[in-house]
Amino acid sequence: MKLLILNGPNLNLLGKREPEIYGNLTFEDYFSTLENKFPEISFTYFQSNVEGELINKLHEVGFSYDGIILNAGAYTHTSIGLGDAIKGITTPVIEVHISNTFSREEFRHQSYISPNAKGIIIGFGLKSYELAVDYFL
């Protein structure tokens, strides 16, 4: 099974950025944990702060991978382009968020990803990614 974990803007700062919300672990460290826990899965990880690069990656793998786990960060709430890219591919996408976006600012309650995602996992910290992997298994 081939899964892509795709992270959007500012998620490269995990472990440093607002640890009270996002924790102290870098995503690279957490990614190693996922790889060890699920050795039967071929994981690919990609992070970008650039919206077009995220769209390009969705187009690149969106017809050949078994699943995509997407945390689009702030683009979740602003990017019609990402929503359209998900709608245009055949690989199922699970939208994940580390924090409970509904307990935060009002603008974070809107998602342009959700209408085109297979499902949404919100608010379980980094474990949100593991829950998405469990879905694909």
UniProtKB/TrEMBL annotation:
Q: Where does substrate bind?
A: 71, 77, 84, 98-99, 108
Keyword Amino-acid biosynthesis belongs to the record: yes
Entry's transmembrane regions? none
Q: In which pathway does it act?
A: Metabolic intermediate biosynthesis; chorismate biosynthesis; chorismate from D-erythrose 4-phosphate and phosphoenolpyruvate: step 3/7
Question: What's its catalytic activity?
Answer: 3-dehydroquinate = 3-dehydroshikimate + H2O
Keywords (alphabetical) are: Amino-acid biosynthesis, Aromatic amino acid biosynthesis, Lyase
Keyword Lyase among record annotations: yes
The active site is formed by 22 (proton acceptor), 97 (proton donor)
**EC number(s) of the enzyme?**
4.2.1.10
Transition state stabilizer, annotated site positions: 17
Which leading EC class covers this enzyme? lyase
Q: Write one Gene Ontology MF term.
A: 3-dehydroquinate dehydratase activity
What Pfam families does the database record attribute to this sequence? DHquinase_II
HAMAP family in UniProt: AroQ (MF_00169)
Cite the NCBIfam families for this sequence.
aroQ, PRK05395.1-2, PRK05395.1-3, PRK05395.1-4
What role does this protein play? Catalyzes a trans-dehydration via an enolate intermediate.
| Family the entry assigns | Belongs to the type-II 3-dehydroquinase family.
Q: Give the quaternary structure.
A: Homododecamer.
* Listed name of the protein: 3-dehydroquinate dehydratase
